[in-house]
Specification:
Distance between the termini: 16 Å
Oligomer: single chain
Largest sheet: none
Number of strands: 0
Order of helices and strands: HHHHHHHHHHHHHHH
Shape: globular
Helix content: over 70%
């Protein structure tokens, strides 16, 4: 696995000089401004573009007009995209630190597979057809797989390699189950084909409120773990020498990742590459210090997710391309480029 040396990480995680810190703060403020613009674009742009005055009217007045209804629907979609994007980015950054692998993502530990398998089970055996029903099954599946990975990875003796191997093995088994159920039951295939690629099209205030508590707890926990995870990334011996409690930090990091990725997957389906690509790109200009990676990932991940959602609505008018498809189409080539650039730099 790819990891910076302890010496390099110690240099990067030391307090940044005032000038460098100011540049990072300004960069974060610029990222927030970009996020605001993308969020406004998500409300204004769709299968039918709305003038800015109509968007403004729909946000602050409710007359029941067509424009107001469209704005309300897009607003719910945008809010869910903001929350899900931030959750995926945070969980990806936490898992990259936990596994000491800068190319890790929520799918590495089987969280996406657990949520997908639980939704298929709910649809096939319990007759669940509504998104509000999917949410709880998906989150339960993600949480159960997260706990199983932690147990199989050695629990208190868990190591990055054991966790990654356990997650990969469980993911393979669950995706085999998922494909088998969808092939054997055409009804399940019809219901699941949109959910499994990831989408914001079914967003609603009710869904957002259901997952919001889990997202909030997971976000607070992830941000609070920035400093101890910095120590964990340096290696077990160094972390112990710095006074880090490895078992507690890894357990809490797993919990934060499951809460964030599980809730986001439950609400939107398994959206790939956001949790992998954004933290990895952020790391290239902030260094390995999670005190900067986590805030940047929280802001820039929704930029990618909402940007992909807007692009999917525009390129396929009057229909739309699911956001999970867009992120996969964009993320695949970018991921290959990042890996090749990293290998070239190491030669």
């Amino acid at each position: 696995m790819l990891v910076d040396s302890p010496t390099e990480q110690c240099a990067e995680t030391a307090p940044a000089p005032p000038t460098r810190r100011a540049v990072r703060v300004l960069g974060l403020l610029l990222s927030v401004a970009i996020l605001v613009l993308v969020a406004l674009a998500s409300i204004a742009i769709g299968a039918k573009a709305l003038p800015l005055d109509q968007v403004w009217h729909g946000l602050f007045h409710d007359t029941g007009s067509y424009g107001d209804v469209v704005v309300d629907e897009r607003l719910a979609r945008t809010v869910l995209g903001l929350l899900a994007g931030a959750a995926l980015g945070l969980s990806g950054a936490v898992l990259q630190a936990l596994t000491r692998n800068p190319l890790a993502d929520p799918g590495l530990l089987g969280i996406n597979a657990g949520a997908s398998a639980a939704v298929v089970t709910a649809t096939t055996y319990f007759g669940v057809t509504s998104l509000s029903g999917y949410v709880w099954f998906a989150f339960a599946g993600a949480a159960a797989v997260g706990a199983l990975v932690w147990f199989l990875g050695g629990s208190r003796g868990a190591t990055p390699v054991r966790l990654a191997l356990a997650g990969t093995a469980i993911s393979a088994a669950l995706y085999g189950y998922l494909q088998a159920m969808m092939i054997l039951d055409d009804a399940v295939l019809g219901k699941m084909r949109f959910w499994t690629v990831g989408s914001l099209s079914s967003a609603s205030n009710a869904t957002t409120l259901q997952v919001l508590p889990f997202l909030a707890v997971g976000a607070v926990l992830a941000l609070a773990l920035a400093r101890p995870l910095n120590a964990v990334e340096m290696g077990d011996d160094t972390a112990r020498a710095l006074g880090a409690n490895l078992n507690r930090t890894r357990a809490l990091a797993m919990l934060a990742a499951v809460l964030l990725a599980g809730a986001a997957t439950a609400a939107c389906g398994p959206i790939v590459f956001v949790g992998l690509m954004v933290p990895h790109v952020v790391r290239s200009f902030t260094g390995p210090d999670l005190r900067w990676i986590l805030p940047y990932a929280t802001v820039l991940s929704p930029v990618l997710l909402l940007g992909a959602d807007v692009a999917g609505r525009v390129v396929a008018r009057p229909a739309e391309l699911q956001v999970g498809i867009v992120t996969a189409l964009v993320g695949g080539p970018v991921f290959i480029f990042l890996v090749r650039r990293r290998r070239t730099a190491q030669l």
